[in-house]
Specification:
Elements lengths: L3 E4 L4 E3 L5 E4 L2 H4 L1 H13 L7 H8 L5 H10 L10 E4 L2 E4 L1 H21 L1
Bound molecules: zinc ion (ZN).
Length: 116
């Protein structure tokens, strides 16, 4: 059984011990999305982020758009996209988060260019 901590910022992530952190507002915002995010986090491997985790993050049934809409209502959710990650009391720089941030900006820009 994975330990779950409810937090007031970001969306969700799993640390190297398999401990899941999930935004406490997600459940009331959209139960279906919450369940999918939680299922996704449980699929992450325990230990260092690896190829399997990367594959899971790029191919899953949660769209960035859904998470983005959640963040518009709960702006602290945007902390998820910050390349600075805080674990316990230590801030560190995450290349994976930076990569996701760049991809998200590209997708939003592309959508904006298509629909403007
Ligand atoms: Zn993930």
């Amino acid at each position: 059984m994975r330990q779950i901590t409810y937090i007031s910022h970001s969306v969700a992530w799993t640390d190297t011990l398999g401990h899941i952190y999930i935004n406490k507002n997600l459940k009331t915002y959209n139960k279906g999305l919450y369940n999918r995010v939680l299922r996704h986090e449980k699929q992450h491997t325990i230990g260092a982020y690896n190829k399997q985790d990367l594959k899971l993050d790029f191919k899953n049934n949660i769209s960035q758009w859904e998470l983005f809409k959640f963040c518009l209502i709960y702006p602290l959710g945007f902390a998820q996209y910050s390349p600075l990650v805080k674990v316990k009391d230590t801030l560190f720089f995450s290349w994976v988060s930076l990569l996701k941030l760049i991809i998200t900006i590209c997708v939003i820009t592309a959508v904006w260019l298509i629909f403007k």
